[in-house]
Design a protein that fits this description.
This protein is an alpha/beta fold and about 350 residues long. The N and C termini lie far apart (about 70 Å).
């Protein structure tokens, strides 16, 4: 396959029994049938082959590449609808990916999203410690949920730009509130994939350096919707962030199989225990045992704990008994555009 590729070095394994190469469509030996025949002649293996013409990709520039790479990854993973027949048809291969990339790019360019705030409350005193900053897309005709749009942005490579914009907007909001005499702290969600990107890190470290006055009011929540691959590099990144005085939370702890691995390799200030444990712990001795073990581990590591999905007084009481320090959920407040129960001080 390498011999058919441009320069003889643009062929690669996609995993399993799937391979890909970049070739010149104008070459005499550039047809899929030629590839298949050559492989069969050399190996005796029967193979299926198809080509996608990049000239037919609707998006151009970086976004076009992102859409193509995402679709190739779906093909490599064997996802539904990404078979060999689809590969031979650019429209079928890219499916709705190009439209979704275009839509997300429009959201970024127009700032078509809003911020809402959900309180994190001390279970001991009932006082609001800080607010989690969440994004809500202003796209009424989208068939995708907020979570699906974020995971797509992670997979297609647009999440770094989105996380940067959200963080900058949250900092601007903090400064605006300060001029109004409001003292409040924010926790901003940042994808683990973003934090693993060198370009993103340069950008946000620059943002933090220019926001020295705001840093004590900021925390970052690392989301786990996309698996973090290089934990060693991320650990160094988090060290830099915490050295600046910005607290770091590990979100949805316990939801995925990687949570304990993350906790072992990453130094964080707090973890947010996934709400599925809390939702069922009222009636499940097994879930209470898991919940209690998480809290004990975090206490021994000097890590604060936040319980998600606190929807009733019974949930709050159970978390208090187990030793969880903070709670978040509809019992304390839904994510809203405004802020409630904040401290105010006189301003000149």
């Amino acid at each position: 396959l390498g011999s058919f590729s441009i320069g003889g070095s643009h062929a690669a394994s996609l995993g399993g029994n799937r391979f890909a190469l970049v070739h010149d469509k104008g070459a005499a030996d550039g047809s899929p049938e030629t590839f298949a025949e050559a492989v069969h002649a050399q190996t005796g293996l029967d193979v299926s082959a198809a080509s996608v013409d990049t000239d037919q990709i609707a998006l151009t520039g970086e976004d076009g590449v992102k859409a193509l790479v995402f679709s190739l990854q779906q093909f490599a993973d064997g996802s539904d609808g990404f078979d060999m027949d689809a590969f031979g048809d650019p429209k079928a291969l890219l499916g709705e990916t190009t439209e979704r990339v275009r839509q997300f790019r429009q959201i970024l360019n127009e700032g078509a999203f809003s911020l809402v705030y959900q309180p994190i409350v001390s279970l001991e005193t009932g006082e609001t410690r800080h607010f989690e900053v969440l994004s809500r897309f202003d796209v009424t005709d989208s068939i995708y949920s907020q979570f699906e749009m974020i995971t797509f942005a992670e997979d297609v490579g647009l999440i770094q730009e989105f996380d940067t914009v959200v963080l900058s907007r949250a900092i601007s909001r903090l400064r605006q509130l300060r001029t109004q005499g409001v003292e409040v702290k924010f926790a901003v969600n940042v994808s683990g994939r973003s934090l693993s990107d060198a370009g993103f890190m340069r950008n946000i470290m620059s943002v933090f350096e220019r926001a020295e006055d705001i840093r004590p009011q900021l925390s970052l929540e690392i989301t786990e919707s996309a698996k973090i691959k290089d934990l060693e590099a991320l650990s160094a990144t988090l060290h830099e962030i915490r050295e600046l005085g910005v607290r770091v939370y590990l979100d949805d702890f316990g939801a995925g199989v990687s949570g304990f691995q993350y906790l072992r390799q990453l130094v964080v200030d707090a973890v947010k225990i996934d709400g599925s444990y809390i939702r069922d712990a009222i009636n499940s001795k097994r879930d209470r045992a898991f919940l209690s073990s998480m809290v004990t581990l975090c206490k021994e590591l000097g890590i604060a704990t936040v319980g998600e999905w606190v929807e009733t007084a019974d949930h709050a009481d159970l978390l208090t008994q187990i030793g969880v320090e903070y709670g978040q959920g509809y019992y304390y407040g839904k994510p809203l555009p405004g802020l409630k129960n904040v401290n105010r001080k006189a301003v000149a």
